[in-house]
Amino acid sequence: MQKTFTEFSTNAVLKIGNEELLDSFRTSKQPELYTFIRTKSSKAEIIVDSIPYTIEPHSILALTVVQYFQFITGTDLVVYQFNREFYCIKDHDHEVSCAGLLFFGNVHIPIIELDNKEQRKLDILNEVFLDELETKDTIQAEMLRMLMARFIIISTRLLKAKEGFVESSKNTKIDLLRDFNLLVEAHFKTEHSVSFYAEKLFKSPKTLSNTFAKLNTSPLQIIHERVILEAKRLLIYTDKTAKEIAYEIGFEDASHLSRLFKKYTELSPSDFKKQLKQSV
């Protein structure tokens, strides 16, 4: 089952369906659409950036447009896919507060568990989605965007609750983490120092470090993990050499990337590539 909404004036696309929507991902590729996968009574098996994940029953997983995704198994799924023309995460972040958490969370793949109440709520919302797709009028696009905003808000609230984030004021730790993640996503190929991001956020590097320590991470770790993730993607899914990849993600000397890569993986980029070929 698959239903598609298109808005030719803006090139907006929204797709709603079941596991059939994921059939084209039997081999790994980038979705090019923001994707939500919701399991119901059974689990699903997927691979994201070469790492296998199990989505347990009654859960939601969110994928960005840049992750490499492969669908292995899953039945009775609810799948939503949309492009930035339909709903721009960054432009609407003041409404849904999901950027840097639900999306653009670097290496973190959010999987959100649903209790019985939330399952019923999302079942009803999906019925409204499907009904609205059949309603062809001048406000259909606006209604569908409002429904997607509601789905994202519900998912973001649940994720925050799962991670134990408490927003007591406008400038919370999680807001700072979200903003930092967004900046890293935008600049990690050219900027690898904490001071660059601290200046953009009008914070000192020490303030960032102290704040993120309470969230069991560090600003430098987030930068490095994003760099390593991109290096892995390019090693796995392209034919680029380790030297070419180093230049692409901002290292003038390939040996600098090699040392960082080995720190996180215990392998040099070249050895990682060789190991991939051997496993294939």
TrEMBL record:
Key words of the record: DNA-binding, Transcription, Transcription regulation
Q: Which domain of life is it from?
A: Bacteria
Residues in HTH araC/xylS-type domain copies: 178-275
Q: Which InterPro entries match?
A: Homeodomain-like_sf, HTH_AraC
Q: Is DNA-binding one of the keywords UniProt gives this record?
A: yes
Q: Which Gene Ontology molecular-function terms are recorded?
A: DNA-binding transcription factor activity; sequence-specific DNA binding
- Is Membrane one of the keywords? no
Q: Which PANTHER family match?
A: ARAC-FAMILY TRANSCRIPTIONAL REGULATOR, TRANSCRIPTIONAL REGULATORY PROTEIN
Q: What is this protein called?
A: Helix-turn-helix domain-containing protein
| Organism in which the protein naturally occurs | Seonamhaeicola sediminis
